[in-house]
Amino acid sequence: MQLAGRDLTGSLPGGQARTLFTYLAVNRARPTGRDQMVEALWPWRAPAGADASLSALLSRLRAALGPGVLDGRGEIRLRLPADAWIDLEAAEDAIHRAEAAVTQEDWARGWGPSLVALFTARRGFLPGEDLRTRLRDELGAAPAPELRELQAELLRR
What total of structural domains would you count in the chain? Predict the structure, then answer.
């Protein structure tokens, strides 16, 4: 993610703070209530003191993002400028552009967007976060392989 010309990927806190940021970015079109954020962070069982933990995570995000990016207290809204770049959204847009080009049999026009989507999918979801271990620890199971399916789909085209 880039904001005001600077790459925030390395400066964002890891773990649950990064997961929370991702959740807020995906849902930035609307304010998000604290209960919704707790559910997103701890979908199977919220720990005792979940609200205090959420407040600490939001404080860490506010410090990393700078002023005016996270608005609100009871309901939080992530305010990003129109030119903010989020890799997941870029990949989704690239998939649509590649599919449209392939439909029209314009292979050259579809090549670039397909590479954007492919390379984004290869990096994985939340690079640097070991979500498989976290889910295995919490659930006893590994997450669904959506990104691998996306990679396979892109390679078939």
Answer: 2
Q: Which of 22, 56, 78 is the last residue of a domain?
A: 78
Q: Which domain holds residue 140?
A: 87-156
Question: Residue 22 corresponds to which tokens in the numbers above?
Answer: 């991702």
| Assigned token pair, 54 | 């959420």
pLDDT at position 85 over 50: yes
The burial of 140, by beta-carbon neighbours within 10 Å (0-12 exposed, 13-18 middle, 19 or more buried), is given as exposed
Per-residue buried b or exposed e for 59-73, using 16+ beta carbons within 10 Å of the residue's own CB:
ebbeebbeeebbeee
Cβ atoms of 66 and 12 within 8 Å: the answer is no
Identify whether the C-beta of residue 126 lies closer than 8 Å to the C-beta of residue 18.
yes
- 34-41 vs 16-26: helix crossing angle, rounded to 10: 130
Domain C-terminal end among 78, 105, 140: 78
Q: How many residues does the chain have?
A: 157
Q: What would the pLDDT profile of 22-61 be if each residue is shown by its tens digit?
A: 889 888 888 999 999 999 898 888 889 999 999 999 999 9
Asked whether the beta carbons of 41 and 54 are under 8 A apart, the reply is yes
Tokens of 1: 């993610």
Same domain, 118 and 151: yes
